[in-house]
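Repro:
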Amino acid sequence: MPHAIHPRRLFTLATGNWLSRGYLAVLALSVVAMFMFPEGRFGLDPMTLTAPLSFLGMAFPFGPGTEGSLAAEVLATGFWVGLLLLGALGNAAALGALASRSAGVPPRQRVRGLLAPAVDNWLSRGYLAVVAAAIGFFLYAVCLSPDPGFAGIWPLMATAPLSIVAITVSGPLGDGSLSLVVFTVGTALAGLGNAVLLGRLARALRR
């Protein structure tokens, strides 16, 4: 099976280089901080660091805090923890695939080679379609809808965790058009960056 995805290869990418191990170390520190400072916002939370996969839990009506029997609460919490672990594994493997890219590429081909994984496989192309839909909905809500509400949460969630940079930069600019442009461009670039990581992960898993 030349195109099968091997779990051993996935774990190797997630733990076999400094970039993926550094990411996992930061994630571990965020988990410790979450328990040490439950009322505060100390750094980044684990859900943001394991996005976008961890945000899929928001589509289900259960998770931490679900009321009911003990078995239901344990099952809901276990489902949430499982999504966090899958998100951490996927992000670490994607970073590992990026760190293990081949060297010696001619300078004129570096940009093309860097961006190619974002569009040459179904996984990254499907992800980019989701990002485009989220940004399109956001722009429609802000520019044409009388009540945009919290439309910005969709592109932010779809392009996390890289979109943290976009919201950080656009926040101090206020609610003007410049902030809108910075946020839109920032989330689009974050989505492109995530697509590159997904594409490199897809390539690495099929070697």
